[in-house]
Amino acid sequence: MLRHSLRHDNHVFLHVLNNNNIYNEPTCLTNHIDKIKFVIVDFEFTMINRKDLLLVSGSISNSLDKYKPVKLEGKPIVLTTTNKLKMLQNREVKKVMQSVGRIFRNEPELLLPLLGQLEASLKLKRGTTQSTTYINQYLHTDNRIPVIVFWNGTTDKEILQKLGLNRKMLNITSYNDNNDNYFNLKLLDISGSTSKLLYSSRIGYQGKNGRILNLMETHDLVWFVQLIIT
To answer: Which superkingdom (predicted)?
Structure first.
């Protein structure tokens, strides 16, 4: 689903990726830290037909370019459950718009930007950046090993895999382990079929229902804790 975009806020990512404690354990990161680059990827997507993913747009940035965001934009791509890719056809647009409207009917703050991006993508006339070719070139424009980083990126990982781009992948999340409203910021290696915890740090108390913080909530909590410390 459409989520708070990473492209405007790398504070939480830098808080984790710049923490030296990540590199205390022997991992691929410690073995090649001078040869890798972190690549933050964020896709905007929704479900259609109750089974297929519709990739609408995205954003990508990397540590060698000071995380300057590059927008991934082009004609929306349908990613099927059988791992086939197809461009959204004009005859399908109305049905997709209606489906998106039903999904987000009670969330206008998500619905309106998504519909706006869908319309802009369909009208795009310049060259597309939302393609396997472009993303692959972006990942390998230098001699560094790309390590892809997501925020709560289970579906982002699925999208990259459907695009045929299996790489080293890390996921950052903020999770309440003990159901006590104290949240831990976690970095996990999700490259394989199971996740491996690389780093975890308690960031503080947040009164809310649910056990996962969104990016904005995590940013505010990290910023507040650092403000108190300093």
So the answer is: Eukaryota
